[in-house]
Amino acid sequence: MHFSSKTSVRSSGSDRVLVIMAKAPRAGSVKTRLNSSLSAEAVTPFYRCLLDDTLGLVRSLHDVEIAVMCPESDVNELTQIVGDGVKVVAQKGEGLAAGLTSVFAHFVDSHRRRVVAFNSDSPHLPCSVLEDAFETLSAHDVVVGPTHDGGYYLVGAKASYPTLFANDGMGTTSALERLQSRIRELGLSVGFAAPFYDIDVGDDLSRLAEELRSDPAKAPRTAAWLKEQKIGAEPSRLPSRKNSEKL
Q1: CATH code (residue 135)
Q2: Pick from 164, 190, 191, 192: which is nearest to 178 by CA?
Q3: Angstrom distance (rounded) from CA 116 to CA 79
Q4: How far apart are CA 98 and CA 162, in angstroms?
Q5: Measuring CA to CA, which residue among 213, 204, 154, 205 is closest to residue 179?
Q6: Is 0.90 surpassed by the pTM of this model?
Q7: Cross-strand bridge partners of residue 157
Protein backbone atom coordinates (compact mmCIF):
# COMPACT_ATOMS: atom_id res chain seq x y z
CA MET A 1 0.00 0.00 0.00
CA HIS A 2 1.10 3.53 -0.65
CA PHE A 3 0.23 6.47 1.55
CA SER A 4 1.10 10.06 0.86
CA SER A 5 3.24 11.53 3.62
CA LYS A 6 2.43 14.77 5.37
CA THR A 7 5.06 17.45 5.22
CA SER A 8 5.79 20.41 7.41
CA VAL A 9 8.38 23.03 8.18
CA ARG A 10 10.31 22.14 11.32
CA SER A 11 13.19 23.91 12.94
CA SER A 12 15.50 22.88 15.75
CA GLY A 13 15.40 26.55 16.77
CA SER A 14 11.64 26.56 17.27
CA ASP A 15 10.24 27.54 20.65
CA ARG A 16 7.72 24.67 20.30
CA VAL A 17 8.77 21.06 20.91
CA LEU A 18 6.47 18.05 20.59
CA VAL A 19 7.77 14.84 22.14
CA ILE A 20 6.11 11.50 21.38
CA MET A 21 6.19 9.00 24.23
CA ALA A 22 6.89 5.71 22.48
CA LYS A 23 8.24 2.20 22.72
CA ALA A 24 9.79 -0.02 20.06
CA PRO A 25 7.03 -2.17 18.51
CA ARG A 26 7.99 -5.51 20.04
CA ALA A 27 5.68 -8.36 20.98
CA GLY A 28 4.90 -8.40 24.68
CA SER A 29 6.00 -4.81 25.35
CA VAL A 30 3.31 -2.73 23.63
CA LYS A 31 -0.48 -2.66 23.93
CA THR A 32 -0.62 -5.88 25.96
CA ARG A 33 -4.12 -5.07 27.22
CA LEU A 34 -5.39 -5.53 23.67
CA ASN A 35 -4.44 -9.21 23.69
CA SER A 36 -8.01 -10.15 24.58
CA SER A 37 -9.23 -8.40 21.41
CA LEU A 38 -6.30 -8.97 19.03
CA SER A 39 -4.02 -11.96 18.61
CA ALA A 40 -0.53 -11.61 20.05
CA GLU A 41 0.80 -11.57 16.49
CA ALA A 42 -1.50 -8.68 15.54
CA VAL A 43 -0.86 -6.32 18.45
CA THR A 44 2.67 -5.40 17.37
CA PRO A 45 1.87 -4.40 13.75
CA PHE A 46 -1.18 -2.53 15.02
CA TYR A 47 0.99 -0.49 17.38
CA ARG A 48 3.43 0.17 14.52
CA CYS A 49 0.53 1.62 12.51
CA LEU A 50 -0.48 3.82 15.44
CA LEU A 51 3.08 5.05 15.79
CA ASP A 52 3.49 5.72 12.06
CA ASP A 53 0.25 7.69 11.95
CA THR A 54 1.20 9.61 15.08
CA LEU A 55 4.41 10.64 13.35
CA GLY A 56 2.36 11.69 10.34
CA LEU A 57 0.10 13.77 12.55
CA VAL A 58 2.87 15.65 14.33
CA ARG A 59 4.77 16.20 11.07
CA SER A 60 1.75 18.12 9.80
CA LEU A 61 2.47 20.83 12.37
CA HIS A 62 4.52 23.83 11.28
CA ASP A 63 7.50 25.29 13.07
CA VAL A 64 7.67 22.51 15.66
CA GLU A 65 10.68 20.48 16.71
CA ILE A 66 9.71 16.79 16.88
CA ALA A 67 11.33 14.20 19.14
CA VAL A 68 10.68 10.79 20.66
CA MET A 69 11.28 9.84 24.29
CA CYS A 70 11.64 6.13 24.98
CA PRO A 71 13.34 3.51 27.16
CA GLU A 72 17.07 3.30 26.54
CA SER A 73 16.77 -0.21 25.10
CA ASP A 74 14.45 1.07 22.34
CA VAL A 75 16.54 3.97 21.03
CA ASN A 76 18.26 2.20 18.12
CA GLU A 77 15.11 0.54 16.80
CA LEU A 78 13.01 3.68 17.05
CA THR A 79 15.74 5.74 15.39
CA GLN A 80 15.43 3.46 12.36
CA ILE A 81 11.64 3.75 12.38
CA VAL A 82 11.24 7.53 12.73
CA GLY A 83 13.87 8.47 10.13
CA ASP A 84 15.59 11.79 9.62
CA GLY A 85 14.54 14.96 11.35
CA VAL A 86 13.28 13.36 14.56
CA LYS A 87 15.57 13.06 17.59
CA VAL A 88 15.16 9.90 19.68
CA VAL A 89 16.14 10.38 23.32
CA ALA A 90 16.55 7.76 26.05
CA GLN A 91 14.63 8.49 29.22
CA LYS A 92 16.28 8.37 32.62
CA GLY A 93 14.66 5.83 34.89
CA GLU A 94 11.91 3.26 34.42
CA GLY A 95 8.25 3.80 33.67
CA LEU A 96 6.10 6.53 32.20
CA ALA A 97 6.48 8.99 35.10
CA ALA A 98 10.26 8.84 34.64
CA GLY A 99 9.82 9.30 30.91
CA LEU A 100 7.69 12.41 31.33
CA THR A 101 10.09 13.86 33.87
CA SER A 102 12.90 13.22 31.38
CA VAL A 103 11.03 15.06 28.61
CA PHE A 104 10.98 18.36 30.45
CA ALA A 105 14.42 17.96 32.01
CA HIS A 106 15.88 17.37 28.55
CA PHE A 107 13.98 19.75 26.28
CA VAL A 108 13.17 22.79 28.42
CA ASP A 109 15.99 25.33 28.34
CA SER A 110 16.70 28.88 29.46
CA HIS A 111 14.47 30.21 26.68
CA ARG A 112 11.43 28.52 28.28
CA ARG A 113 10.40 26.68 25.15
CA ARG A 114 6.89 25.29 25.10
CA VAL A 115 7.25 21.51 25.34
CA VAL A 116 4.35 19.10 24.87
CA ALA A 117 4.58 15.35 25.56
CA PHE A 118 2.06 13.36 23.52
CA ASN A 119 1.11 9.69 23.54
CA SER A 120 1.72 7.40 20.57
CA ASP A 121 -1.78 5.92 20.37
CA SER A 122 -4.05 8.84 19.49
CA PRO A 123 -3.06 9.45 15.84
CA HIS A 124 -6.67 10.35 15.01
CA LEU A 125 -6.50 13.46 17.20
CA PRO A 126 -7.32 16.63 15.22
CA CYS A 127 -4.15 18.58 14.47
CA SER A 128 -5.87 21.71 15.77
CA VAL A 129 -5.89 20.23 19.29
CA LEU A 130 -2.09 20.10 19.32
CA GLU A 131 -1.89 23.65 18.00
CA ASP A 132 -4.30 24.79 20.71
CA ALA A 133 -2.19 23.04 23.36
CA PHE A 134 0.84 25.11 22.40
CA GLU A 135 -1.27 28.27 22.44
CA THR A 136 -2.58 27.37 25.89
CA LEU A 137 1.02 27.14 27.11
CA SER A 138 1.53 30.76 26.12
CA ALA A 139 -0.80 31.77 28.94
CA HIS A 140 -0.34 28.94 31.48
CA ASP A 141 2.48 27.06 33.18
CA VAL A 142 1.05 23.64 32.27
CA VAL A 143 -1.37 22.26 29.69
CA VAL A 144 -3.12 18.90 30.05
CA GLY A 145 -5.18 16.90 27.57
CA PRO A 146 -7.59 14.72 29.60
CA THR A 147 -8.89 11.35 28.51
CA HIS A 148 -12.45 10.25 29.18
CA ASP A 149 -11.31 7.57 31.64
CA GLY A 150 -9.53 9.81 34.14
CA GLY A 151 -6.07 9.87 32.54
CA TYR A 152 -4.42 12.24 30.08
CA TYR A 153 -3.07 11.92 26.54
CA LEU A 154 -0.79 14.97 26.56
CA VAL A 155 0.90 17.24 29.04
CA GLY A 156 3.00 20.30 28.37
CA ALA A 157 5.07 22.84 30.28
CA LYS A 158 7.61 25.63 29.82
CA ALA A 159 9.82 24.56 32.73
CA SER A 160 11.00 21.36 34.35
CA TYR A 161 9.23 20.41 37.59
CA PRO A 162 10.94 17.27 38.96
CA THR A 163 8.07 16.39 41.30
CA LEU A 164 5.22 17.04 38.86
CA PHE A 165 4.67 13.37 38.05
CA ALA A 166 5.49 11.91 41.45
CA ASN A 167 2.82 9.62 42.88
CA ASP A 168 0.31 10.55 40.21
CA GLY A 169 -1.23 7.10 39.79
CA MET A 170 -0.13 6.47 36.22
CA GLY A 171 -2.61 4.25 34.43
CA THR A 172 -5.39 4.60 36.99
CA THR A 173 -8.67 6.44 36.85
CA SER A 174 -7.21 8.97 39.29
CA ALA A 175 -4.14 9.87 37.19
CA LEU A 176 -5.55 13.21 36.04
CA GLU A 177 -6.84 14.08 39.50
CA ARG A 178 -3.45 13.37 41.06
CA LEU A 179 -1.64 15.40 38.40
CA GLN A 180 -3.95 18.34 39.06
CA SER A 181 -3.23 18.01 42.76
CA ARG A 182 0.52 18.21 42.11
CA ILE A 183 -0.03 21.25 39.89
CA ARG A 184 -1.90 22.99 42.70
CA GLU A 185 0.76 22.07 45.26
CA LEU A 186 3.42 23.62 43.00
CA GLY A 187 1.36 26.78 42.58
CA LEU A 188 1.19 26.45 38.80
CA SER A 189 -1.49 27.66 36.44
CA VAL A 190 -3.06 25.06 34.15
CA GLY A 191 -5.07 25.09 30.95
CA PHE A 192 -6.75 22.17 29.25
CA ALA A 193 -6.81 20.75 25.76
CA ALA A 194 -9.97 19.13 24.43
CA PRO A 195 -10.84 15.77 26.06
CA PHE A 196 -10.05 12.78 23.85
CA TYR A 197 -9.47 9.03 23.97
CA ASP A 198 -6.49 6.76 23.41
CA ILE A 199 -6.35 3.08 22.51
CA ASP A 200 -5.94 0.86 25.56
CA VAL A 201 -8.59 -1.87 25.49
CA GLY A 202 -11.14 -3.43 23.19
CA ASP A 203 -13.83 -0.78 23.49
CA ASP A 204 -11.28 1.85 22.42
CA LEU A 205 -10.32 -0.33 19.47
CA SER A 206 -13.91 -0.64 18.32
CA ARG A 207 -14.50 3.06 18.71
CA LEU A 208 -11.40 3.80 16.65
CA ALA A 209 -12.37 1.32 13.94
CA GLU A 210 -15.81 2.88 13.63
CA GLU A 211 -14.37 6.40 13.48
CA LEU A 212 -11.78 5.49 10.85
CA ARG A 213 -14.27 3.65 8.68
CA SER A 214 -16.04 6.95 8.11
CA ASP A 215 -12.86 9.05 7.86
CA PRO A 216 -9.74 6.92 7.15
CA ALA A 217 -7.63 9.99 6.37
CA LYS A 218 -7.42 10.73 10.09
CA ALA A 219 -4.98 7.82 10.49
CA PRO A 220 -4.51 6.13 7.08
CA ARG A 221 -2.11 3.33 8.00
CA THR A 222 -4.17 2.37 11.03
CA ALA A 223 -7.41 2.60 9.05
CA ALA A 224 -6.06 0.31 6.32
CA TRP A 225 -4.78 -2.22 8.84
CA LEU A 226 -8.09 -2.33 10.73
CA LYS A 227 -9.94 -2.79 7.44
CA GLU A 228 -7.64 -5.63 6.40
CA GLN A 229 -8.18 -7.32 9.77
CA LYS A 230 -11.96 -6.81 9.47
CA ILE A 231 -12.05 -5.24 12.90
CA GLY A 232 -15.34 -3.53 13.68
CA ALA A 233 -17.47 -2.42 16.58
CA GLU A 234 -18.69 -5.45 18.51
CA PRO A 235 -19.41 -4.10 22.01
CA SER A 236 -20.64 -7.46 23.33
CA ARG A 237 -17.18 -9.00 23.24
CA LEU A 238 -15.15 -6.08 24.50
CA PRO A 239 -13.24 -6.20 27.80
CA SER A 240 -13.58 -3.55 30.44
CA ARG A 241 -10.81 -1.15 31.35
CA LYS A 242 -8.18 -2.04 33.93
CA ASN A 243 -5.19 -0.16 35.21
CA SER A 244 -2.19 0.27 32.96
CA GLU A 245 0.35 3.00 32.33
CA LYS A 246 -1.04 5.51 29.86
CA LEU A 247 -0.11 8.51 27.73
Answers
A1: 3.90.550.10
A2: 164
A3: 20
A4: 9
A5: 154
A6: no
A7: 115, 142
